[in-house]
Amino acid sequence: MTSKRESERLARLRTLDEQIADALRESLANGELKSAPSWGRPLASGDGYDETPDALKMPFKVLKNAGHVPAEVELMRTIAALQAEVDAAPAAEADTPPWRAKRQRLGELRQQLALRLEHLRRSGSL
After folding, report:
1. Which among 76, 84, 120 has a CA at the least distance from the CA of 102?
2. Residues 6+ positions from 57 with CB-CB distance below 8 Å
3. What is the pTM assigned to this prediction?
4. Which residues contact 83 (CB under 8 A, 6 or more apart)?
5. CB contact set of 49 (below 8 Å; sequence gap of 6+)
6. Among candidates 52, 106, 114, 117, which has minimal Cα distance to 81?
7. pLDDT of residue 119
8. Is 73 within 8 Å of 65 (Cβ atoms)?
9. Mean pLDDT (10-residue bins), the chain, 126 residues
10. Cα end-to-end distance, the chain, whole Å
11. What is the 3-state secondary structure (H, E, C) of the chain?
């Protein structure tokens, strides 16, 4: 048996579902939906979910919901920040030892990321 509180919650959800359905019917009737470039095609999520191995989808979702990111994402962020720093290097200093070291580190991080991603693709786990 459901409690009164649970019944009220379900009623609110049904109401929200009904509001969404009404808005969709209205958009369909006035042609707004059909004018969308993606009409009739699946939406591309672009978030990598489809490429993520099934065994990792739920753990990654839990991490995302908790505000944490997988090590590979953090590595990608580090690479992007370092690449931006290297790209912004003054031309006169670009070939100095500190900048060569940064470019070397960037290459190492990219290789580390590529190896981790390949391992994920092959095994489905880290």
Report:
1. 84
2. 49
3. 0.53
4. 106
5. 57
6. 106
7. 87
8. no
9. 80 80 89 82 71 80 86 90 91 87 95 90 71
10. 43
11. CCCHHHHHHHHHHHHHHHHHHHHHHHHHHCCCCCCCCCCCCCCCCCCCCCCCCHHHHHHHHHHHHCCCCCHHHHHHHHHHHHHHHHHCCCHHHCCCHHHHHHHHHHHHHHHHHHHHHHHHHHHCCC
Cα separation of 24 and 33, whole Å? 8
Tell me what pLDDT residue 45 has. Answer: 65
Predicted confidence at residue 81, as pLDDT, reads 94
pLDDT of residue 103: 93
CA 120 and chain centroid, separation: 16
Using CA atoms in the order 118, 121, 124, 126, what is the torsion angle rounded to 10 degrees? 10
Q: How many CB atoms lie within 10 A of CB 87?
A: 7
Q: Which two tokens stand for residue 80?
A: 């992007």
Give the pLDDT score at 70.
81
